[in-house]
Design goal:
Elements (H helix, E strand, L loop, with lengths): L12 H19 L4 E5 L5 H10 L3 E5 L3 H8 L10 H9 L3 E4 L10 E4 L14 H13 L5 E4 L7 H14 L8 E4 L18 E5 L2 H12 L5 E4 L2 H31 L4 H8 L24 H10 L5 H27 L8 E5 L14 H11 L3 E5 L25 H5 L3 E4 L8 H7 L3 E3 L11 E3 L1
Parallel strand pairs: 1-2, 1-4, 2-3, 4-5, 5-6, 7-8, 9-10, 9-11, 11-12, 12-13
Antiparallel strand pairs: 6-7
Helix pairs in contact: 1-7, 5-6, 8-11, 11-12
Bound molecules: nicotinamide-adenine-dinucleotide.
Length: 459
């Protein structure tokens, strides 16, 4: 089905003229940096986006429902470690930067960029309540000439059906005539030293050509490369495609890891060698399972939407199955390794290395480490953890029964005292040589130890 276009059935040309005039007024403000950019949801995506617009000369007004985040930002403190305190402290001192929990102020910004959560429900269906709530509150304050852009990852048609419907109904304004609406997916890669918000190309798809144009121009003023596409649905599908591609390829190398292990072949050596092929191969690395707010969840947004079209997403389901089975595989390998040393998993002391879902960040969301801890506890093991970026295990919605644990120090005595170290996240801040020297046994799920070693079992 073709994406409905705002203004497709415009009856009168005065509407076109009005939309054109509003779009021109919007565009003329960008150059002079008069545009006030509103960001709703100041999390891993929204906060760096807000800083990027500020640093590129715009006035920025950030909104969040969490008063603690607003207080921290007003005090110049960062609650996202990899963003560092300097940028936040500089923003707090800048009178072009404001943050608030007062959503009545949504009438102020010229552009409202929305980066609220899009998780899955318990039934693994899209949880759209944050997008819906934000659209409802925005609809109360929406004014003529405003641009709203959804950045949250979601299924195709969220912007031009769900959001558009709520915004038009609540405001009485017409999309593409009185206000503009677009979708621009976030490709933030927390902890990536090579790319940040300003340097990652940004895909933009509007509901109607004017929206694509003005949203693209706004982003071009802050982001080095903008890629306009023909509709919000194309932009929504682009983001899902990228994450499905990752989920499927990670599942593939995880499956190969299991097969090659049985054959006595080291998958990490294979992948390094395969990666020397200068074309037609892209390297993905195996691990203890899938983690993070995106890759384990986003593909299922398409699975859900595909049902409406009587279609199944077999690759997505299969990749999910393989990736979900990885923590069990790791625990089986760990059990075997202990067994070979005439030890049982019951009552064994296990040190989990790394709680974050990937290296060098402090984000534990959907981390496979939690699944590993739960399985270990289920088998009667005694679990401790070390993570240089996460001092204590926070309360996690998906793992409500996890014990309250605090990161232990990596002293030689401490390391020696564990029956096994389970290397779950390969943070750069850890001295892996020293760890191996003092550990009794290391189960390595990240391929940190490339050379065979009597104390190392790869899993
Ligand atoms: N984290 C990533 O690396 C990443 C990358 C690409 C895309 N995304 C997508 O971006 C979106 C946001 O993800 P995130 O990682 O920034 O999440 P997050 O949880 O870090 O931040 C979301 C913020 O929104 C706030 N919030 C919740 N409900 C709100 C509401 N009704 N109104 C205003 N604020 C509200 C929360 O308090 C929080 O500060 C999601 O759709 C996610 O899938 C995330």
């Amino acid at each position: 089905m073709a994406a409905p276009r705002c203004g497709k059935h415009r009856a009168v040309s005065t509407e076109d003229a009005s939309a054109k005039a509003l779009a021109e007024a919007f565009l003329s403000q960008i150059e002079s940096r008069e545009t006030l950019v509103g960001i709703v949801g100041l999390g891993y995506v929204g906060l760096p986006l807000a800083l990027t617009f500020l640093e590129r000369g715009f006035r920025v007004l950030g909104f969040d429902v969490d008063p603690k985040k607003i207080e921290a930002l007003e005090a110049g403190e960062s609650y996202i470690k990899h963003l560092g305190t300097e940028r936040i402290a500089a923003a707090a001192k800048d009178d072009r930067f404001g943050v608030t929990t007062d959503f009545a102020r949504l009438a102020e910004p010229d552009a409202v960029l929305i980066a609220v959560p899009t998780p899955l429900t318990k039934q693994r269906e899209p949880e759209m309540k944050y997008v819906v709530q934000t659209s409802e509150v925005l609809s109360k304050y929406l004014r003529k000439g405003q641009l709203a852009v959804l950045e949250s990852t979601t299924y195709p048609s969220t912007t031009d059906e769900l959001m558009r419907g709520i915004l038009e109904e609540g405001s009485g304004l017409k999309c593409g005539v009185d206000f503009f609406l677009a979708y621009s997916p976030e490709r933030e890669d927390p902890g990536n030293a090579k790319f940040d918000t300003a340097t990652i190309p940004k895909v933009v798809g509007g509901v109607g050509p004017e929206a694509t144009e003005i949203a693209s121009k706004l982003y071009e003023a802050a982001i080095d490369m903008v890629v306009p596409v023909s509709s919000s649905r194309v932009a929504e599908a682009t983001k899902l495609t990228e994450n499905i591609f990752r989920a499927v390829n990670i599942a593939l190398v995880n499956e190969l890891k299991v097969i090659y292990d049985r054959m006595g072949i080291d998958v990490w050596e294979v992948l390094d060698a395969a990666a020397t092929k200068p074309f037609g191969f892209m390297k993905f690395t195996p691990g203890p399972g899938l983690g993070g707010h995106c890759i384990p969840l986003d593909p299922f947004y398409l699975t859900w939407k595909a049902r409406e079209y009587k279609t199944t997403t077999r690759f997505i389901e299969l990749a999910g199955e393989v990736n979900i089975s990885m923590p069990n595989y790791v625990i089986e390998k760990l059990k075997d390794a202990l067994n070979d040393r005439e030890r049982a998993l019951k009552n064994a002391k296990v040190l989990i290395m790394g709680i974050a879902y990937k290296k060098d960040i402090d984000d534990p969301r959907e981390s496979p480490s939690f699944e590993l801890i739960e399985l270990l506890l289920h088998h009667g093991a005694k679990v401790a953890f070390h993570d240089p970026h996460i001092p204590t295990i926070p309360k996690m919605r998906s793992w409500p029964k996890l014990p309250e644990l605090t990161s232990v120090e990596l002293t030689p005595e401490n390391v020696k005292s564990y029956d096994v170290v389970l290397l779950s996240t390969d943070h750069s801040a850890v001295d892996y040589e020293a760890l191996l020297e003092h550990a009794q046994l290391v189960v390595d799920t990240r391929g940190v130890y490339r050379q065979p070693h009597p104390k190392v079992v790869k899993a």
